[in-house]
Amino acid sequence: MSQNKEREHSCLTGACQAGISPVNVAIVGASGAVGHELVKVLEERNFPVGELRLCATSRSAGKVMSFKGQSLTVEETTPDSFTGMQVALFAGGSASKEFGPAAVERGCVVIDNSSNFRLDPEVPLVVPEVNPGDVKWHKGIIANPNCSTIIMVVALKPIHDAAGIKRVVVSTYQAVSGAGAEGIAELSGQTGAIVNGGEYPPGKFPYQIAFNLIPHIDVFQDMDYTKEEWKMVKETHKIMHDSSMGITATTVRVPVYRSHSESVNIETNKKLTAEQTRTILAQAPGIIVVDDPREKKYPMPLFCSDKDEVFVGRIREDNSIPSGLNLWVVGDQIRKGAATNAVQIAELLVKYGCLQV
Amino acid sequence: MSQNKEREHSCLTGACQAGISPVNVAIVGASGAVGHELVKVLEERNFPVGELRLCATSRSAGKVMSFKGQSLTVEETTPDSFTGMQVALFAGGSASKEFGPAAVERGCVVIDNSSNFRLDPEVPLVVPEVNPGDVKWHKGIIANPNCSTIIMVVALKPIHDAAGIKRVVVSTYQAVSGAGAEGIAELSGQTGAIVNGGEYPPGKFPYQIAFNLIPHIDVFQDMDYTKEEWKMVKETHKIMHDSSMGITATTVRVPVYRSHSESVNIETNKKLTAEQTRTILAQAPGIIVVDDPREKKYPMPLFCSDKDEVFVGRIREDNSIPSGLNLWVVGDQIRKGAATNAVQIAELLVKYGCLQV
């Protein structure tokens, strides 16, 4: 009772006055790059936030962040951080392993941006444009897929529905912010040093990233593929509910601040023309088609950042096989590749009435 | 007679004293990025240069360049520039259209780095590691392939010989120096301006290239593929003498100064393991395998520049099809992708005795 009163009292969005049940939200890892974006996206999408609790490690506790014009102080995450909360958004890292079960025990639905639970058969892995219904069978935790995977599957889904995808060959061009705020700082500091005749040794990345490419993201695993490359295979199979789809990936870090790009080659069962594909993609949710090459219109990471949609261009038939397509897909991996997708999952929970009152 | 005397007199390499017939070489477009590299590569590879004549447009005439410690003045190209020369190396652009026939009439073999004659059925298109014998049927002009194509076919050839290549899906990551000295200046100036809070509008490239990717190299043509993408298809077919090979390409400009990188997916007729592929490539001419991911060893453009070889790493079986491979291929596109390949063709002409004495 007192909890409800407190909740109404601290409703940050006016949702309660508008007759919408406000949702109490905890963000874990609030002070990092994805955490900041989660706060921003909750605000921008006007998610009906009741109380907002910002949590992080003790190192970041005490920082002040802003939400809808109000200042909120970051607290150290403890099991009790989740008391009275209904949704817990975990930005990444190991925190969901440590605190996820405590949040679930306290009645929260955990939406986890880390890779900790993504391939757990008890945990739905959700991209709202692709498999929204999977949120319904959650058992407390819902996983947010890897950024490169999210961006790709949003583009694959409508093609799979229309023509059946047999095989995908993807090569990525991944921005440094995929490695968090430290990745951004390293590209910036390193470029500045080089331009001004100085040096800035690699720290976050294994080699200099300024004016270079590093074909190595995350650790190396089976068959000499990186974990990032396997994520694009295994997570896509799970999200698309189709493990027969052939997928092979090469993931590469590039000296771009934000937005991942992907060169995606697709073999379909049924032939699609470029024009049919353009129409299908333009009508699909979460996609903006930018594809008028004669007018020099195609997606580029510099112009796709801070956007919630996935941008698709360079749509071409691949005549090296009977039913082939090439796409160039770009998406802001902190937005749609992380924060936006997580908030969209929370929106589905509200829509489907999946939250404890 | 007097010509021969003059030639001996001006022999720049000591080839004549060493009993090797010196070769008189004209370089057209000597003052550009590829022209400079041609001079450097002739020197480094100790090509038996007799007289060296440096030619360019009137704008660059009068510039002084150095070869083996001697200063040479750039002349304006005229038909008479080729009198007494045996090999004419054309760095690029339209010069070979204008002066190529005049050079051939004067007994020169033209080695042309432009795309003007590459698909002409009367003109051999040669990568010495792949189709050296094609120099023998030249009718005065030999074409040097597109840089991205050269780098790819050096890696494809030994695999094609061992297992038969059915299909290739390639995505490129191309350095700004592929657009010449102006491309380098634009990345450098633009990055410096951005780092120091200024602006540097695009000129050479259609959009900002610093911290961005541009999926557009050369003009758009059939089926919305760029000319650069079609070059990788059509030139590969011609060089490999196999137009049945399925090839599809997506070419992308990246903010890297030098060396092109390519993510190459290959379907072979006969299955090759990653280990077999590694062995085959390591034994092939012009290739250095850098592939020890656990030790963070893979090719990167920053470390492949100023090298004549093509570097191959990230060699993996692609299990999305029965006989698939993924490679990450990097090569200096001004060296092996242009100047080195041209000088190697000249070396073949000497070896096969194809030059007029």
TrEMBL record, chains A, B:
The keyword Ribonucleoprotein does not apply. The active site is at C147 (acyl-thioester intermediate), H260 (proton acceptor). The keyword Amino-acid biosynthesis applies. Residues 24-138 form the Semialdehyde dehydrogenase NAD-binding domain. Keywords: Amino-acid biosynthesis, Diaminopimelate biosynthesis, Lysine biosynthesis, Methionine biosynthesis, NADP, Oxidoreductase, Threonine biosynthesis. Substrate binds at Q174, R253. Phosphate binds at R118. Its EC number is 1.2.1.11. Pathway: Amino-acid biosynthesis; L-threonine biosynthesis; L-threonine from L-aspartate: step 2/5; Amino-acid biosynthesis; L-methionine biosynthesis via de novo pathway; L-homoserine from L-aspartate: step 2/3; Amino-acid biosynthesis; L-lysine biosynthesis via DAP pathway; (S)-tetrahydrodipicolinate from L-aspartate: step 2/4. It catalyses: L-aspartate 4-semialdehyde + phosphate + NADP(+) = 4-phospho-L-aspartate + NADPH + H(+). GO terms for biological process: 'de novo' L-methionine biosynthetic process; diaminopimelate biosynthetic process; isoleucine biosynthetic process; lysine biosynthetic process via diaminopimelate; threonine biosynthetic process. NADP(+) binds at S31, G32, A33, V34, R59, S60, S177, G178, P202, Q333. One of its GO terms (molecular function) is NAD binding. Belongs to the aspartate-semialdehyde dehydrogenase family. Homodimer. Catalyzes the NADPH-dependent formation of L-aspartate-semialdehyde (L-ASA) by the reductive dephosphorylation of L-aspartyl-4-phosphate. NCBIfam families: asd_B (TIGR01296), PRK14874.1 (NF011456). This is Aspartate-semialdehyde dehydrogenase. It comes from Desulfocucumis palustris.
